[in-house]
Amino acid sequence: MSPPVLELRKLTRHYPTPAGPVIAVHEMDLIVAKGDFIALLGPSGCGKSSLLNLLGCLDRPSSGELLIDGIPVSSLDDDGLARLRNQKIGFVFQHYHLLPRMSALRNVELPMMYAGVSPEQRRERALQGLERVHLSHRLDHTPSMLSGGESQRVAIARALVMNPSLVLADEPTGNLDTRTGEEIMQLFELIHRDGTTLVMVTHSPEMAERATRILRLRDGRIESET
């Protein structure tokens, strides 16, 4: 039996301040199984983004344990964390984080460049990724030539191109109008039906309802789950 995609054991992250430590994530226990689509919902300051940074290995916990595909993150050095992020985690951000001087095709190829994939394979897989998000006609366009929705589709193709165990999305529709946001959520639902495990941060209860599990966070804890 394969391990969970994510397992949190008393995961905690606190930050020092002159007034004393601020606890962003407090002794959190959670199991995310393969194929889950989880929405993290809650007010600003509840710990959503801090938790997502921990899950994406962009930050290290103060205490507790995080396992990704059964691998304890605490056992990895910085190089090991970088390899884990590249091979197992795809990221989708509110502001896309595309490189402005690179075409859509080159932006999607980036994770494969870091992984040492051959140029021929990179191009083939990037083409397939852009076709999957219906952007085959925008291969040579740079981000300044794309709409917000198109830029987010490029970011989603980039997140999926390494076939990650997990995709993390931080307010993926927060910078988009209602219609375009709906299109992006429909794309996430298709990706989920294809078997991808998703964890999405959102302020929107309507967007959260599209997930299969909704975790409501408050003060760094899971307050409830539906």
Largest sheet: 6 strands, mixed
Name the beta content range.
Answer: 25-35%
CATH architectural grouping = 3-Layer(aba) Sandwich
Q: What's the helical proportion of residues?
A: 25-40%
Radius of gyration computed on alpha carbons: 17 Å
Return the average pLDDT rounded to an integer: 94
Distance separating the two termini: 26 Å
Classify the secondary structure makeup into a structural class. Answer: alpha/beta
How many discrete domains?
1
Number of strands: 10
Could you name the CATH class? Alpha Beta
Number of helices: 7
User: What is the CATH fold-level name?
Assistant: Rossmann fold
Shape: globular
| Strand order within the widest beta sheet | 6-7-8-3-9-10
Low-confidence stretches: none
Quick recap:
The chain is of the alpha/beta class. The chain has helices at 48-55, 78-88, 104-114, 119-132, 148-160, 178-193, 205-208; strands spanning 6-15, 22-32, 37-41, 63-68, 71-72, 89-93, 166-170, 197-202, 213-218, 221-225. It has a single domain, classed as P-loop containing nucleotide triphosphate hydrolases (Rossmann fold, 3-Layer(aba) Sandwich).
